[in-house]
Hints:
Blueprint: H1 2-28, H2 62-74, H3 85-90, H4 97-104, H5 117-123, E1 126-134, E2 144-156, E3 162-176, E4 182-194
Antiparallel strand pairs: 1-2, 2-3, 3-4
Helix pairs in contact: 1-4
Amino acid sequence: MHRHRRHCVRLAVLGCAALVIALVLGACGGADPQPEGHDGHSGHDHSHELPSGDGPQPDASPDESATEALQRIYSWEPATDRDSGDGMRRAVPWLSGALRTVATRARDDTVRALPEWQQWRTNHDIVTAAVKVTARADRPGDLDVGRRALVTQDVMHSDGTSTPWRLMTFDIGLSRDDDQRWRMWRMDLIDTTTLGAAQ
Protein backbone atom coordinates (compact mmCIF):
# COMPACT_ATOMS: atom_id res chain seq x y z
CA MET A 1 0.00 0.00 0.00
CA HIS A 2 2.83 2.36 0.93
CA ARG A 3 4.62 1.70 -2.36
CA HIS A 4 1.41 2.21 -4.33
CA ARG A 5 0.80 5.54 -2.59
CA ARG A 6 4.40 6.61 -3.19
CA HIS A 7 4.14 5.60 -6.85
CA CYS A 8 0.96 7.67 -7.23
CA VAL A 9 2.59 10.66 -5.57
CA ARG A 10 5.52 10.41 -7.96
CA LEU A 11 3.25 10.28 -10.96
CA ALA A 12 1.31 13.26 -9.68
CA VAL A 13 4.45 15.36 -9.40
CA LEU A 14 5.87 14.29 -12.77
CA GLY A 15 4.65 17.40 -14.56
CA CYS A 16 5.75 19.66 -11.72
CA ALA A 17 9.16 17.99 -11.53
CA ALA A 18 9.62 18.36 -15.27
CA LEU A 19 9.07 22.10 -14.92
CA VAL A 20 11.47 22.31 -11.97
CA ILE A 21 14.20 20.41 -13.81
CA ALA A 22 13.71 22.54 -16.89
CA LEU A 23 14.29 25.58 -14.68
CA VAL A 24 17.33 23.94 -13.05
CA LEU A 25 18.78 23.00 -16.42
CA GLY A 26 18.13 26.56 -17.55
CA ALA A 27 20.14 27.70 -14.53
CA CYS A 28 22.84 25.21 -15.45
CA GLY A 29 23.06 26.47 -18.97
CA GLY A 30 24.70 24.54 -21.78
CA ALA A 31 26.33 24.98 -25.12
CA ASP A 32 25.12 25.22 -28.63
CA PRO A 33 25.48 21.81 -30.28
CA GLN A 34 29.03 20.92 -31.25
CA PRO A 35 30.26 18.23 -33.62
CA GLU A 36 31.32 14.96 -32.01
CA GLY A 37 34.97 15.54 -32.88
CA HIS A 38 35.51 18.79 -30.98
CA ASP A 39 38.87 19.60 -29.46
CA GLY A 40 40.34 17.53 -26.60
CA HIS A 41 42.77 18.52 -23.87
CA SER A 42 45.91 20.51 -24.64
CA GLY A 43 48.42 18.68 -22.47
CA HIS A 44 46.70 19.16 -19.10
CA ASP A 45 44.36 16.26 -18.31
CA HIS A 46 42.17 16.94 -15.31
CA SER A 47 39.18 14.84 -16.29
CA HIS A 48 39.72 12.87 -13.07
CA GLU A 49 38.09 15.82 -11.29
CA LEU A 50 34.69 14.64 -12.55
CA PRO A 51 32.75 12.18 -10.36
CA SER A 52 32.93 8.57 -11.48
CA GLY A 53 31.06 5.38 -10.64
CA ASP A 54 28.23 3.15 -11.77
CA GLY A 55 25.46 3.95 -9.30
CA PRO A 56 24.75 4.05 -5.58
CA GLN A 57 25.98 1.18 -3.42
CA PRO A 58 23.50 -0.75 -1.26
CA ASP A 59 25.25 0.44 1.91
CA ALA A 60 25.47 4.10 0.84
CA SER A 61 23.48 6.57 2.95
CA PRO A 62 20.92 8.97 1.47
CA ASP A 63 23.45 11.78 2.04
CA GLU A 64 26.15 9.91 0.09
CA SER A 65 23.80 9.20 -2.82
CA ALA A 66 22.59 12.82 -2.91
CA THR A 67 26.16 14.12 -2.82
CA GLU A 68 27.21 11.92 -5.73
CA ALA A 69 24.13 12.80 -7.78
CA LEU A 70 24.56 16.55 -7.34
CA GLN A 71 28.32 16.40 -8.00
CA ARG A 72 27.60 14.66 -11.28
CA ILE A 73 24.81 17.05 -12.30
CA TYR A 74 26.89 20.18 -11.70
CA SER A 75 30.40 19.03 -12.71
CA TRP A 76 31.19 19.66 -16.36
CA GLU A 77 34.12 19.34 -18.75
CA PRO A 78 33.29 21.67 -21.63
CA ALA A 79 36.20 20.42 -23.74
CA THR A 80 34.41 17.07 -24.06
CA ASP A 81 30.84 17.67 -22.82
CA ARG A 82 28.37 18.85 -25.43
CA ASP A 83 26.49 20.91 -22.85
CA SER A 84 25.71 21.00 -19.14
CA GLY A 85 23.00 18.40 -19.71
CA ASP A 86 25.81 15.82 -19.88
CA GLY A 87 26.16 16.24 -16.12
CA MET A 88 22.49 15.40 -15.69
CA ARG A 89 22.88 12.35 -17.89
CA ARG A 90 25.92 11.17 -15.87
CA ALA A 91 23.75 11.29 -12.75
CA VAL A 92 20.96 9.06 -14.11
CA PRO A 93 22.01 5.94 -12.10
CA TRP A 94 21.61 8.02 -8.90
CA LEU A 95 18.14 9.32 -9.85
CA SER A 96 14.65 7.84 -9.75
CA GLY A 97 11.06 8.68 -10.51
CA ALA A 98 10.19 11.88 -12.33
CA LEU A 99 13.71 13.26 -11.89
CA ARG A 100 15.25 10.30 -13.71
CA THR A 101 12.65 10.61 -16.48
CA VAL A 102 13.47 14.27 -17.02
CA ALA A 103 17.25 13.64 -16.82
CA THR A 104 17.12 11.09 -19.61
CA ARG A 105 15.40 13.74 -21.75
CA ALA A 106 17.98 16.46 -20.98
CA ARG A 107 19.09 16.97 -24.57
CA ASP A 108 20.46 19.97 -26.39
CA ASP A 109 17.05 21.49 -27.09
CA THR A 110 16.14 21.59 -23.36
CA VAL A 111 19.37 23.13 -22.06
CA ARG A 112 19.86 26.88 -22.23
CA ALA A 113 23.32 27.85 -23.49
CA LEU A 114 25.76 29.38 -21.02
CA PRO A 115 27.71 32.32 -22.47
CA GLU A 116 30.86 31.08 -20.70
CA TRP A 117 30.76 27.58 -22.18
CA GLN A 118 32.75 28.28 -25.35
CA GLN A 119 35.52 30.07 -23.45
CA TRP A 120 35.71 27.22 -20.93
CA ARG A 121 36.01 24.83 -23.87
CA THR A 122 38.73 26.92 -25.52
CA ASN A 123 40.69 27.22 -22.25
CA HIS A 124 40.19 23.55 -21.30
CA ASP A 125 38.67 24.63 -18.00
CA ILE A 126 36.38 22.33 -16.06
CA VAL A 127 33.59 23.15 -13.63
CA THR A 128 33.58 21.15 -10.40
CA ALA A 129 30.81 20.91 -7.84
CA ALA A 130 31.34 20.61 -4.09
CA VAL A 131 28.25 19.40 -2.25
CA LYS A 132 27.27 19.72 1.40
CA VAL A 133 24.16 17.84 2.48
CA THR A 134 22.51 18.76 5.76
CA ALA A 135 21.96 15.59 7.77
CA ARG A 136 18.56 14.92 9.31
CA ALA A 137 17.32 12.35 11.80
CA ASP A 138 15.18 9.94 9.80
CA ARG A 139 12.65 7.60 11.35
CA PRO A 140 13.66 3.91 11.30
CA GLY A 141 12.25 2.23 8.22
CA ASP A 142 11.64 5.45 6.26
CA LEU A 143 11.65 4.82 2.52
CA ASP A 144 11.43 8.51 1.61
CA VAL A 145 13.58 11.23 3.20
CA GLY A 146 14.25 14.91 2.64
CA ARG A 147 17.47 16.88 2.78
CA ARG A 148 18.82 20.41 2.21
CA ALA A 149 21.89 20.60 -0.03
CA LEU A 150 24.38 23.36 -0.84
CA VAL A 151 26.21 23.09 -4.18
CA THR A 152 29.28 25.27 -4.83
CA GLN A 153 30.66 25.38 -8.37
CA ASP A 154 34.28 26.37 -9.06
CA VAL A 155 35.95 26.82 -12.44
CA MET A 156 39.23 24.88 -12.47
CA HIS A 157 41.79 26.34 -14.89
CA SER A 158 44.48 24.44 -16.75
CA ASP A 159 47.22 26.32 -14.87
CA GLY A 160 46.01 24.80 -11.58
CA THR A 161 44.18 27.86 -10.29
CA SER A 162 40.45 28.01 -9.64
CA THR A 163 37.73 30.65 -9.62
CA PRO A 164 34.62 30.38 -7.40
CA TRP A 165 31.56 30.77 -9.56
CA ARG A 166 28.17 29.90 -8.06
CA LEU A 167 26.42 28.72 -4.88
CA MET A 168 23.02 27.00 -5.07
CA THR A 169 20.67 25.74 -2.37
CA PHE A 170 18.29 22.83 -2.95
CA ASP A 171 15.57 20.98 -1.11
CA ILE A 172 15.86 17.38 -2.24
CA GLY A 173 13.98 14.13 -1.76
CA LEU A 174 15.39 10.61 -1.86
CA SER A 175 13.78 7.18 -1.82
CA ARG A 176 15.09 3.73 -0.96
CA ASP A 177 14.23 1.75 -4.06
CA ASP A 178 13.45 -1.95 -4.41
CA ASP A 179 17.15 -2.74 -4.89
CA GLN A 180 17.84 -1.17 -1.45
CA ARG A 181 19.71 1.81 -2.93
CA TRP A 182 18.96 5.44 -2.16
CA ARG A 183 18.24 7.61 -5.18
CA MET A 184 17.28 11.26 -5.53
CA TRP A 185 13.81 11.78 -7.02
CA ARG A 186 13.25 15.49 -6.28
CA MET A 187 15.45 18.59 -6.37
CA ASP A 188 13.92 22.01 -5.86
CA LEU A 189 16.18 25.01 -6.40
CA ILE A 190 15.69 27.37 -3.43
CA ASP A 191 18.37 29.98 -4.05
CA THR A 192 21.33 30.74 -6.28
CA THR A 193 24.16 33.24 -5.77
CA THR A 194 26.93 34.23 -8.18
CA LEU A 195 30.24 34.13 -6.32
CA GLY A 196 32.49 35.57 -9.02
CA ALA A 197 33.34 35.76 -12.68
CA ALA A 198 33.21 32.38 -14.39
CA GLN A 199 36.18 33.10 -16.67
